[in-house]
UniProtKB/TrEMBL annotation:
The chain crosses the membrane at residues 522-539. Gene3D superfamilies: 3.30.420.40, Exopolyphosphatase. Domain 2. This is Apyrase. GO terms for biological process: CTP metabolic process; UDP catabolic process. PANTHER family: ADENOSINE/GUANOSINE DIPHOSPHATASE, NUCLEOSIDE-DIPHOSPHATASE MIG-23. The lineage of its organism: Eukaryota, Fungi, Dikarya, Ascomycota, Pezizomycotina. InterPro entries: GDA1_CD39_NTPase. GO terms for cellular component: Golgi apparatus; membrane. GO terms for molecular function: ATP binding; GDP phosphatase activity; ribonucleoside triphosphate phosphatase activity; UDP phosphatase activity.
Length: 690
């Protein structure tokens, strides 16, 4: 059956930093064995944990002029973190991706190519991760691709793919639109209604995934990106307009209605030096309505539209039908609506309430705001300084640019065709509104990286029927299931090479139980382990008992506090001594060390990472199992040699490796039913882990 789990690593190289994401899902061969009918019609179930992410600053793009340093100075710490999570024997089967977004897109092409080549070379030479194709695994992805991955991740977490009947928005539409805004760019992705999809078929992307039963699942999605429309780039453009409007040899103080009254900064947002009377200085006037008026021209609504209809900056976008196109917004859409002006208890976006909060804050005197934020982190104070501009930009993009209706939670669009239960659930979450900013869905933070890995995992499922329908995306060309520009998922549905073993199912069950047991109390876990040991003795072959004992012992050894006293050979040591016997010198040595009785459940460490800023993605996973705990279970190592001492202190003669293997093979000639033992590969030793 092969390994139980498959793993994937993806590095989101954003404009301000790089974030590591690790995902895990069941090997399709294992998952299909006991899948329910509902699971067979669903996409693979991906899992992640908070401690499986890590972010470092600054971004990869800062190494544009020194690409040779990006591996050692930037990537290695992320690689090391991944190696601490993923089992050592699965590293070579684990794909690693690095996908750079808007920060890298702003670099010259020559620097982009130099960086991606250096990154791929470093990872291939210094890690054992699966990286067969540099062009596929190490990329500067387009904004449209980033938006498509975000669209996949959002609908995956919301259940729009697996349960379309519970998300029927009317007109046979059951998916959600996706909006992302970061420091450098903004993206949109959505499935148009049937009329618009037929009218603009050549503007859409064909997306193909594969459900667990091997059947293709296809969608037609529109994606677009606006480089330079992220909040940081928009702020730079806005300041430039102030310079053009006010600056002259006689004027060095530029009035800025998008800053609280009295706030003084340099043009790049740093605190102004009051003693310098010559450097241009921005002075806040706290007039939010004027701020809205001055930021609106930055939308580029007056740019000619060559292909109607258009949204921002003359960019063609099929007409939005807000009866069925319900959007969620991530990254800055969330942080700008909830960071300074909102609370995490706000379940939906209400335009009127939001604008009232913004106007009240931005009209305050900066000295009062600064006093309020003086006890907080410097980052929080900077957010308060920038909050008014960001709010004006978000409001203009949403309502003047994209055209989101200015509706509150109690005024959802008409025309929904859903059950009353589903309607109430969706209204509580806010997902029936035309727009809803989100950070997490069912406790899981949203990231486009999840969409990429969902696509990869779906590509590992063996196809049923037409095997010429690969997983991935490309142009929507009628009659061409695999268009010339098709982006393959990069995965292979051929199973991992692995010798079959009749004990795989038992080992998987034991591993699952051990994972769950580590979350219980010490006393409960002690009783649970005794039950496992008894079952191992009654049902399993001798070498399997040794391997199971090794796994249990490794959990105990990790739990013992450093420096705690070792107890004698009574209690559990005596019981395991009787159950497992003294078949090998290796086992004798473990017993002699006296570690088995010294155990506690260790705490689970979790990194408190900063949130990512758009192009930087977010932590994410699958709501139906993402919080599944993981215990690193050390495998029994049959390579250790040396003398062993029995309980009476007598020296036991060290056997050769070959003789020990022969003894254990002979000891394992009995199966539960008394049937002949299956032949094993001559390349596998009796104690080798699957």
């Amino acid at each position: 059956m092969g390994k139980k789990w498959r793993w994937g690593v993806i590095l989101d190289a954003g404009s301000s930093g790089t974030r590591l994401h690790i995902y895990r899902w069941k090997n399709p061969a294992k998952a299909l064995k006991d899948a329910s009918p509902e699971e067979l019609h669903s996409l693979p179930k991906l899992m992640t944990e908070k401690k499986w992410t890590k972010k470092i600053r600054p971004g990869v793009s800062t190494f544009g002029e020194n690409p040779s340093e990006v591996g050692r100075e930037h990537l290695q710490s992320l690689v090391d973190h991944a190696l601490d999570i993923i089992p050592e024997d699965q590293i070579h089967d684990t794909p690693i991706f690095l996908m750079a977004t808007a920060g890298m897109r702003l670099l010259p092409q020559v620097q982009q190519k130099a960086l991606t080549r250096e990154i791929c070379s470093y990872l291939q030479q210094n890690t054992q991760f699966s990286l067969p194709d540099c062009d596929l695994h190490i990329q500067v992805i387009k904004g449209e691709t980033e938006g498509l991955y975000g669209w996949i991740a959002s609908n995956y977490l919301l259940g729009g793919f697996d349960h379309p009947d519970m998300h029927n928005h009317g007109k046979d539409h059951h998916t959600y639109g996706f909006l992302d805004m970061g420091g450098a760019s903004a993206q949109i992705a959505f499935a148009p209604n049937a009329t618009e999809a037929e009218k603009h078929w050549d503007d859409l992307k064909l997306l193909r995934m594969r459900t667990m039963d091997g059947k293709p699942s296809e969608y037609k999605v529109f994606t677009a990106t606006w480089l330079g429309f992220g909040v940081n780039q928009a702020r730079e453009s806005y300041v430039k307009t102030l310079e053009d409007a006010y600056q002259s040899p006689d004027v060095v103080e530029l009035p800025d209605p998008c800053m609280p009254t009295g706030l003084r900064t340099t043009l790049d947002g740093q605190p102004a030096d009051k003693s310098d009377k010559t450097a241009p200085t921005l002075v806040g006037t706290g007039n939010f309505n004027e701020c809205l008026r001055k930021t609106k021209p930055l939308l580029g609504k007056d740019v000619p539209c060559e292909n109607e209809p258009c949204l921002l900056n003359g960019q063609h976008v099929p007409a939005l039908d807000f009866d069925v196109n319900h959007f969620i917004g991530v990254s800055e859409y969330w942080h700008t609506t909830h960071g300074v002006f909102g609370t995490k208890d706000d379940k939906a976006y209400d335009f009127n309430t939001y604008q009232e909060r913004v106007q009240e804050f931005c009209s305050r005197d900066w000295d009062g705001i600064a006093t309020e934020y003086s006890s907080k982190k410097e980052k929080k104070a900077r957010e308060a300084q920038e909050a008014c501009f960001k709010a004006s930009w978000l409001i203009n993009v949403l309502h003047e640019g994209i055209g989101i209706p200015r509706l509150g939670l109690d005024k959802p669009p008409a025309g929904f065709n859903v059950s009353q239960g589903a309607l109430e659930h969706a209204k509580e979450k806010g997902f029936l509104d035309p727009f809803q900013p989100v950070d997490k869905i069912e406790g899981i933070e949203v990231s486009w990286t999840l969409g990429k890995m969902v696509l990869y995992a779906a590509g590992q499922i063996p196809p049923q029927g037409n095997k010429d329908l690969p997983v991935g995306f490309g142009s929507n060309l009628p009659g061409k299931p695999t268009p010339p520009d098709f982006n393959f998922a990069g995965s292979n549905w051929e199973p991992l090479k692995h010798e079959p073993d009749d004990d795989d199912d038992w080992t998987d069950t034991a591993d699952d139980l051990l994972e769950k047991a580590t979350k219980r109390s010490t006393s409960g876990f002690f009783v649970f382990v005794l039950i496992l040991v008894l079952l191992a003795y009654v049902f399993r072959k001798k070498e399997r008992r040794l391997r199971l004992y090794s796994k249990i012992n490794s959990v105990f050894r990790r739990g013992r506090r450093p420096g705690s006293p070792r107890k004698g050979g009574r209690g559990l040591a005596g019981l395991t001594h009787k159950l497992f016997g003294r078949s090998s010198a290796n086992y004798e040595r473990v017993m002699e060390e006296g570690d088995l009785e010294q155990f506690e459940l260790g705490g689970v460490d979790s990194d408190d990472n900063d949130h990512s800023d758009s192009t930087e993605g977010s932590r994410v996973g699958r709501s139906s199992g993402l919080a599944t705990p993981k215990v690193n279970i050390e495998l029994y190592d049959d390579s250790r040699t040396g003398s062993a001492i029995d309980r009476s202190g007598l020296v036991v003669r060290t056997e050769s490796r070959e003789r020990l293997q022969l003894q254990m093979l002979n000891a394992g000639r009995r199966s539960r039913a008394g049937s002949p033992t299956r032949l094993k590969s001559p390349l596998m030793t009796p104690l080798e882990e699957d």
